[in-house]
Write a structure and sequence with these properties.
The structure is a single chain. By secondary structure, this protein is of the alpha+beta class. It folds into 2 domains: about 70 residues; about 140 residues. Helix content is about 15%, strand content about 20%. It has a 4-stranded antiparallel β-sheet, with no helix packed on it. Strands 1-4-6 form a 3-stranded mixed β-sheet, with no helix packed on it. A two-stranded antiparallel sheet has the order 5-9. A hairpin with a 5-residue loop joins strand 2 and strand 3.
């Protein structure tokens, strides 16, 4: 059979200083084995977005982790005045209740609500990892939705994330309807699993989405991606 030319897609892997040291130890020929809590390899399609993750999130988080580690060892409070790092945990499916509800405005959007049902402060980091039914890829974040700081939820308080389900102008492809939604939580560095996922109930008729599916980063208010009418603290 004649050779067929195929389009090549370049994937970018955001890499923080710690992981870069491990790659260097492997003579730049491989990446370190995946961690048990980090089973999925997440590349991104855009170089600028990969740079943004490495520079604005991973480098900053590595610094905060070092400060928290020093504070925990010395018994001192961290800079935010909330005690050692052990008093805060990542939000996940075990210490929260998650709901997912399509909204009327803006069109083709869904609001994800996360309530801290635990007894400790929990942190919502980055954006939720969404999976409808058995989809093979995960939607990326809307970049300009990044909050200025990690969203920390006291017990019995709420956090929010918005989801843009489909293009309002019909430019999206592969439209389909999802009947099961799995919401994954990221840890303190991008693509690190924060713990069990949540499976919120969806409307009986399902939720329609297309190839433009995108999640907004988590915040304290329900205006994520414009999805939601009011703030709730």
């Amino acid at each position: 059979m004649p050779n067929e030319s195929r389009a090549t897609t370049t994937l970018w892997r955001p890499t923080g200083a710690t992981e870069l040291d491990l790659v260097r130890d492997l003579d730049w020929r491989a990446r370190p084995p995946r961690l048990p809590e980090q089973p999925i390899f997440y590349p991104v399609l855009d170089e600028d977005y990969a740079i943004k993750i490495a520079r604005d999130w991973q480098a900053k988080q590595a610094t905060e982790n070092r400060q928290a580690s020093k504070a925990a060892k010395s018994g001192k409070d961290t800079k935010d005045g909330k005690g050692a790092a052990a008093t805060r945990v990542p939000c996940n499916g075990c210490n929260t209740t998650v709901t997912a509800q399509p909204v009327r405005r803006p069109l083709n959007h869904m609001l994800i609500t996360v309530k801290n049902t635990g007894s400790k402060l929990c942190d919502l980091t980055y954006y939720p990892v969404l999976r409808f039914d058995e989809m093979e890829c995960f939607p990326q974040a809307v970049e300009d939705s990044q909050p200025q700081a990690v969203t920390t939820l006291p017990p019995a308080s709420w956090g929010y994330a918005g989801v843009s389900l489909s293009a309002a102008d019909g430019s999206g492809e592969g439209g389909t309807t999802g009947h099961k939604l799995t919401v994954g939580f990221q840890g303190y560095t991008p693509d690190r699993d924060a713990g069990p996922s949540a499976i919120p109930a969806l409307p009986a008729k399902g939720v329609s989405y297309d190839s433009t599916l995108a999640a907004c980063l988590c915040g304290h208010h329900d205006l994520c991606c414009g999805a939601g009418p009011t703030a709730r603290r």
